[in-house]
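On clarity, I found the account of how folds are encoded harder to follow than it need be. Since the whole study asks how a given chain folds, the encoding of that fold should be made plain. The format is easy to grasp once an entry is in front of the reader. For illustration, here is how one protein appears when written out as sequence plus structure tokens.
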Amino acid sequence: MKKTLIAAAVSGIFSFPALTFAADVEPASPHTLTGNLTLTTDYRFRGISQTFEKPAIQGGIDYSHASGFYLGNWNSNVNSGAGFPDGNLEMDFYGGYKTSLGDVGLDIGGIFYYYPGSEARGLGLGAESGAVSNKEIYIGATWKFLSVKYYHSVDDYFSLRGVDSTGAATGQDTKGSNYLDIGASYDLGNGWGINGHVGHLNFKNVHNGDYTDWKLGVTKDVNGWVFAAAYIGTDAKGQCTGATSYQPYCFTNSNSDNGAGGINFGTKAKDAGDDTVVISVTKAF
């Protein structure tokens, strides 16, 4: 009996600190901050090369709250000939709200694309002076491995104005241009995944501006490093020689406000929407 009482007493003594420790546990923070860094062989935005089919380094930071609200910034090098005269950097700022209803996820927000050091006037298409930029609002939904997202421009689409079949500026605005993105992403297990995408741009008042793009890719997660390969293609008009009408996606390597470079520049230009394979590696932290 004595041994039993002693054991019980000892057990009781050691149980109190455990209760004290449990009371001291702090609740999980509602704030989440993450970052990401990517190296890629070509920066394709909506299927169109932004780096003259050359490599890019990209990175960003994201903040999210348990309530569903989020903010973020993402950046990449670009080539001025892709429509950013004298500019070589893209900075994206975005924010919105996400929630879920069972298997259905909803996302609504806005994004601001900004190209510091660029000069929209150098586009030569009736654009106003100042840095090239674009503002869009978006709404999206996911269901299991499927997704759909709609983007709507609330000002001139990347500072461009209307263009006719000869390439002459019409002065019409491109506000209201929109992009529909339909995608799928499936986890195969063991770090492997596959993904696909089809998108369509409706480019208001720009001759040959509308196009469809597509992607089929595979990913592999190796200890937090995500390696990816994707086949990307479009039907965008980028014929750089012999074209009989304006080809908005025929880009040069560089463009300047003083008139050097520019689009539709013959053998010095490339079809920015031609089919390609893009390889990348991404690390989140």
Notes: The domain at 31-284 is CATH 2.40.160.40 (Porin).
